[in-house]
Design brief:
Length: 230
């Protein structure tokens, strides 16, 4: 059974805010594309969740991911001088509206440190612009009233740099959480609007069926054709 219970997850907050129809569309349609990359990312995440010994990881890329991820995590912890209670893959809820599963969470007195792994190659928004990290931070302060500041790291073991960081105050994250909650409620209303765009459409299962995306593609092709024909 899916722990998300059909509700918005932290990893999909940005997509839902950009396209309110995203959540219901992905519940209605199945993904038709290749899932091998996603499956590989899951396998690499599992190594960190279970802290698989490096010498037991046979695949070279997976081993490199594990080594670089653990180095980046340790560098962050040493910089922050944090040594608290660690949880991996904890799922936290904002009331009953939406949730997020955190790759790494460490609580130390009134501070929290969160790390999110991006185990595949490709570009991701750095920590200071990453909406998923903001959502995860909001969930932490919602569930742990003693936390006053949250440090967040986006760890990309196959990229350079291998990690980026940001910190937010409790008040900032609570305000963001309310914004995300409103978006999650809007997304569950009957017939929320579909708004096409490169970010929200990239991994949407409704791509082949979405009139908004078809319109965007047609307009873009027409515009490109006019530019070429000049």
């Amino acid at each position: 059974m899916d722990e998300r219970d059909g509700k918005m997850s932290a990893s999909k907050v940005e997509a839902v805010m950009l396209c309110p129809a995203y959540l219901q569309a992905n519940q209605k349609f199945e993904w038709l594309g290749d899932r091998s990359a996603a499956d590989e990312g899951t396998a690499r995440h599992l190594n960190e969740e279970e802290q698989t010994p490096i010498e037991e990881i046979g695949d070279e890329d997976r081993r490199r991911c594990a080594i670089q991820s653990r180095k980046a995590l340790q560098w962050c912890r040493e910089t922050l001088e944090i040594d608290g209670k660690i949880e991996r893959e904890a799922r936290l809820w904002w009331d009953e509206d939406w949730s997020g599963q955190l790759d790494y969470m460490e609580l130390d007195a009134n501070r929290a440190f969160i790390a999110d792994y991006k185990m595949l190659r490709g570009e991701h928004e750095p920590a200071d612009k990453n909406v998923q990290l903001q959502a995860q931070g909001a969930l932490v302060v919602k569930n742990y009233p003693e936390i006053e500041e949250v440090f967040l790291a986006l760890i990309e073991p196959l990229n350079d740099p291998t990690y980026t960081t940001v910190s937010y105050s409790r008040d900032f994250l609570l305000a963001k959480g309310e914004l995300f909650t409103n978006a999650s409620k809007h997304a569950l209303e009957p017939n929320p609007p579909a708004i096409a765009g490169t970010k929200q459409c990239k991994w949407c299962s409704a791509q082949p069926y979405c009139p908004s995306l078809h319109t965007l593609i047609t307009e873009t092709l027409n515009k490109y054709g006019k530019m070429v024909g000049r």
